[in-house]
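Thread: quick sanity check before group meeting

JM: Hey all, I'm pulling together slides for Thursday and realized we never actually wrote out the predicted structure for the chain we discussed last week. Dropping the sequence here so it's in one place. If anyone has concerns about the input, flag it before I start.
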Amino acid sequence: MTTEELLQWADDIVFTNTEKHLDSVQSAILEGAWQGLKYEEIAKKCHRSKSHIKNIAAELWQTLSELLGENIHKANARSILERKAISNIYNYGHSSPIVSGYIDSHINICSENRQYPEDARYRSPSNSNSPPSKNQPTIIDLTDAPELTDYYPRPAEESILKQWMLEAGMRLITLYGLSGIGKSALTVKLIQDIQTEFDYIIWRSLENPPPFSTLQTELYQFFSQSQPNPCATLIEYLRSFRCLIILDDVQNLF
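JM (edit): ok, ran it. Output follows.
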């Protein structure tokens, strides 16, 4: 596990429980503990006094101890945090991607990029001139989606996501967490379960992100190909139809 991965994991844990991210000094303390630095050395790197660093560190170790259920201090911080983080990543029975929901767009943000089975990549649009409906097949493009293999059931997260998307009307949902924690697998499983609830479903990888205008054009072309009288803009499609857009590796846009 790299220092960056540990810091991201610790920040996720703290934010999930306190709604506050680690600040620069707290991150520097964690990084210093990981590298085996003394408080005096951490203080020099942060341009702070040693006493200030020790006070902030004491608060940080107390917070992490309460969140993780172990007595954490500078000497054992690396071993405990690394053990907890690795356990959370690979033991799916006790860990999940972090899920957060917002109002206003059906988007899931995930990671990983593997080949999707050929028979599930694209469902041809109906020849009917009427708009898609529950009586017509969903138009799907999962060319960029990963293959679902060795999925560990996550009934709680699956139920929450379905409720947010199909009942609560949430229109933006983000999934974030360390690589390998199962974000993409959860999303692919969700698509399998609820695909008939949408008129259009498209998954786009942003591993090598195109210009935003190009992405808009690609989405518009996907929606418009099945419509004899296409909407004038992408926004009109999103307003007129039940559209599910999955953007993968969205962090590459920033």
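AS: nice. Residues 131 and 237 are 11 Å apart (CA to CA). The two ends are 23 Å apart (CA to CA).
JM: adding both to the slides.
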